[in-house]
Amino acid sequence: MSVAESFIPLMRIGHCVFVSVPSELSDSQARTLQDTVSERLSRSVGVRGLVMDVSALSIVDSFAAKILGETASISRQFGVKAVLVGVRPEVAITLVELGVDLRHVETALTLERALEKLRVRIVSLD
């Protein structure tokens, strides 16, 4: 796996960790995503929310779907609420068809809605 393939954009702002899922998620990238998020949550104090932005993801296979569900489940074990944001209709259909259990995962159409679900306020500088 190249450095570009292993890079998972992840950052913390306040009490939230944000992860941006690449547009094409290979099996190795999916595993790296899960490992990276798990590692970050295990060493972070005060994190209350995980926002997984999947808006760039146009297709999802069974392995990637499983990893997304597991990652959200892992976040719960750390006391962190996960929100999946930007799910495209075709991805939502695939997740349902694959039977992915996302009962413990909140979804939101936009980042703003995800932050509302996590009760996080971002102050505007306007």
TrEMBL record:
UniProt cross-references to InterPro entries, sorted A to Z: Bact_StressResp_Reg, STAS_dom, STAS_dom_sf
Q: Which residues cross the membrane?
A: none
Query: Can you give the residue ranges of the STAS domain?
Result: 17-118
Q: Which PROSITE patterns match?
A: STAS (PS50801)
User: Which SUPFAM superfamilies does the UniProt record give?
Assistant: SpoIIaa-like
This protein is called Anti-anti-sigma factor
Q: Which organism is it from?
A: Archangium gephyra
